[in-house]
Amino acid sequence: MAVEMLAYIKKQSRVHELSGATKLIIFLCWSTAAMLTYDTWILLALLVISFVIFRLSKVKISEIRFVLMFILFFLLLNNIAIYLFSPQEGVKIYGTSHVLWEIAGRYNVTLEQLFYHFNITLKYFVVIPAALLFIVTTHPSEFASSLNRIGVPYKIAYSVSLTLRYIPDIQREFRTIAQAQQARGADLSKNEKLTKRIKNAAVIVMPLIFSSLERIEVISNAMELRGFGKKKKRTWYNATAFRRADYITIVTGVVLLILSLVITFYDGSRFYNPFY
């Protein structure tokens, strides 16, 4: 918990210099391309580009490691669930069956199923860096202004901004309460039994909930005193005007989306089939 999760990481990079609206548009284009295609070559190309963009952002893996591991854990669960509920999905999609290992009944391991899982994993690895970069390289206030710029009501946009701002606050509050409880003898380390650690963690949860409710009340009162929501429009302190790099980036993102869709659907199928 030493590193804050899903918090804005301030750095000097080309990615950080782009406006929040640009990064939002690119993220939507990128996610759409990754979700709609099952063409392995397109996914591999997007994966390489995502790694290059991640390198340009100067964000270190260690700074987002916890969230990354958390997402990869759900990727593993997703692949297991797909196989348990549809072990022949790859065979249905690609129309052939190359059995590697027989297990029981319809549960066997085929090249087609493994290739299908490979594509699912590629999708995750294409979208995850883009999603994490969008969150950690965009200031919450600028993100809110970006949402408002593309047509989202500013009340909703500001709520999203408050949520993103509140995540690191919750983490700091949790660490403070945890250290106070540990000073009182509540051991949360691996030296304690799991059941005891869960019980000690519950001691932290209640103060955290009450402090969160108090913080929410303070913020809501402050917003009400300042007349938030009285007018239909508002200005944004952290709004960034579009520059040349923003326009070039948006055009590049739209072109990549169009190219991926054209290549994906030119033969009427979203799937690249190497088994024919």
TrEMBL record:
The keyword Glycosyltransferase does not apply. The chain crosses the membrane at residues 24-54, 66-85, 114-136, 247-266. It is found in: Membrane. It comes from Oceanobacillus jordanicus. Keywords: Membrane, Transmembrane, Transmembrane helix. This is Energy-coupling factor transporter transmembrane protein EcfT. It is a multi-pass membrane protein. The lineage of its organism: Bacteria, Bacillati, Bacillota, Bacilli, Bacillales. The keyword Chloroplast does not apply. One of its GO terms (cellular component) is plasma membrane.
